[in-house]
Structures are given as C-alpha cells and as structure tokens.
TrEMBL record:
<keyword id="KW-0812">Transmembrane</keyword>
<feature type="transmembrane region" description="Helical">
    <location>
        <begin position="109"/>
        <end position="129"/>
    </location>
</feature>
<feature type="transmembrane region" description="Helical">
    <location>
        <begin position="166"/>
        <end position="189"/>
    </location>
</feature>
<feature type="transmembrane region" description="Helical">
    <location>
        <begin position="136"/>
        <end position="154"/>
    </location>
</feature>
<protein>
    <submittedName>
        <fullName>UbiA family prenyltransferase</fullName>
    </submittedName>
</protein>
<feature type="transmembrane region" description="Helical">
    <location>
        <begin position="212"/>
        <end position="236"/>
    </location>
</feature>
<feature type="signal peptide">
    <location>
        <begin position="1"/>
        <end position="22"/>
    </location>
</feature>
<dbReference type="InterPro" id="IPR044878">
    <property type="entry name" value="UbiA_sf"/>
</dbReference>
<dbReference type="Pfam" id="PF01040">
    <property type="entry name" value="UbiA"/>
</dbReference>
<dbReference type="InterPro" id="IPR000537">
    <property type="entry name" value="UbiA_prenyltransferase"/>
</dbReference>
<feature type="transmembrane region" description="Helical">
    <location>
        <begin position="38"/>
        <end position="60"/>
    </location>
</feature>
<keyword id="KW-0732">Signal</keyword>
<feature type="transmembrane region" description="Helical">
    <location>
        <begin position="80"/>
        <end position="103"/>
    </location>
</feature>
<keyword id="KW-1133">Transmembrane helix</keyword>
<keyword id="KW-0472">Membrane</keyword>
Length: 238
C-alpha cells in the first residue's frame, strides 16, 4: 500500500464518515423539507437527524470494508490506512446512535420509525446484501422511506402529518436504485478483485461498465425529473 501521512483522530473520524456523501444527502433531504413548507426549526431538526444517520453509515462501511480497502490500496479510507482504530470508530457509531434515536423520534413517531428503518436498511446493505444480487434492495427501501419521514414529520414526538403519496414513494425508491448503481460503478474493479458480487457488477460483466453507466445516468435523471413533476402535481403527502 502507498504511504500517506497519518491524520489526527478527529480528522480521521470525519474522513471515515464519508463527509461529502453525508453532507450531500443531508442537504437534499433538508432542502426537500424546506420546499414542502416546513419551518426553519424543523428543517434544522431534519438536517441533524439525517446527518447523524449518514455518519453512522459511513463509519460502518469503513470498519466492515477495512480489509478489502487495504487489499485494494485505497488511500481515502482512514481505518484501512491505520489512522484510526476500528474499535474507536465502532464506539463512535454507538455514541451517535444514542443521539440518532431521540433525534429521529423528535420528528414524530411515524417519521422517526421511517428514518430509523431507512438507516437500518443501509446498515443491512453494508453488513450483508452488498455482496449479493439483492444489493439494490436496501437502497430502494431506504430512499423509499424518505417521503414518509418528511410527510409524517413535525416538531416533537407523537403523530404528525399524513402518509406520503404512492407516486413519491415509488419514485424515491427508484431513485435509490439509480444512486446505488452510480455510487458503486467507480469501484467495480476493486469489487471484482475482492469478491463483492453486487448487482451492478453482475450486470456490468455482461453489458460493460460504460453502457451500464449511461443507463444509470439516464435512469437517475428521468426519475429525478419524475420526482419534481410529482412534487408539483400530486405533492408529498396524501
């Protein structure tokens, strides 16, 4: 493995959380909350909730994949590089989960259950389904629950809002599948070498990566356009 100068524990923990993807996901969901008419305080709660969940997902990924990342010579994975101990990252996950549960429930009971289930679904992806042909399923479930998290959301525990529209739920799930394909495509070579046989790799071996990338981009763009159209017509909640 090539050498990179070690970072401090705090910086290493931040980098291990996949900060770019965590921030992007947080920004998108928070923006959606704002566009749906939620007040500023509730949007801040949404941001804190989503960011907490995304941080645990990034950390879990780095801990579970540390041996594969080391084998592949990844220079962007602090745990594989030895900058931070896996036990430290695991402890950090436990600490943030203690915040994640009350933060999720603070959005409302149904919203909290939807968000915790969405996070748990992505955990399941990293724990097991990432290596199978069902790798798309956790992304579909996780993204498909986001409209429920937003439509049922409100400030404080209890029941708020209304069920999400079927159109928004289905489109969000389809968007999750597209995001899954786009995020794993850059690592196809590493995944093939380390035995991670997720669905995108299985398809790419038959069609070729460039063609799959094109289809994935078109799929994601069309679904995103569908979400915007649905938001302007049927709306988020029933």
């Amino acid at each position: 493995m090539k050498y990179r100068k070690p970072r401090g524990q705090t910086i290493s923990l931040v980098l291990a959380a996949h900060p770019v993807s965590a921030a992007a996901m947080t920004a998108v969901v928070t923006l959606a909350a704002g566009l749906s008419g939620r007040p500023a305080l509730e949007c801040l709660l949404v941001a804190a909730t989503v960011l907490s969940g995304q941080v645990t997902v990034g950390w879990l990924d780095d801990v579970l994949d540390r041996h594969r990342d080391k084998q592949a010579g990844r220079l962007d994975r602090p745990v594989a590089l030895g900058w931070v101990d896996p036990g430290t990252v695991t402890f950090a996950i436990a600490v943030v989960v203690l915040l994640l549960v009350p933060l999720s429930v603070a959005n409302g009971t149904y919203a909290g259950v939807a968000h915790l289930t969405a996070v748990g679904s992505v955990w399941l992806y990293h724990l097991w389904l990432k290596r199978t042909a069902l790798s798309w399923l956790p992304y579909a479930v996780s993204f498909g629950l986001l409209p429920a998290f937003l439509s049922y959301g409100g400030l404080g525990g209890g029941m708020h809002g209304s069920p999400p529209t079927i159109a928004m739920t289905v489109l969000a799930a389809l968007l999750g599948i597209g995001v899954h394909f786009l995020t794993v495509l850059p690592d196809l070579v590493q995944d093939k070498e380390t035995g991670v046989r997720h669905l995108p790799l299985r398809i790419a071996l038959r069609t070729g990566a460039p063609k799959l990338l094109l289809v994935s981009v078109i799929w994601t763009a069309l679904v995103s356009a569908g979400i915007v159209t649905a938001a302007l017509t049927v709306g988020l909640g029933q």
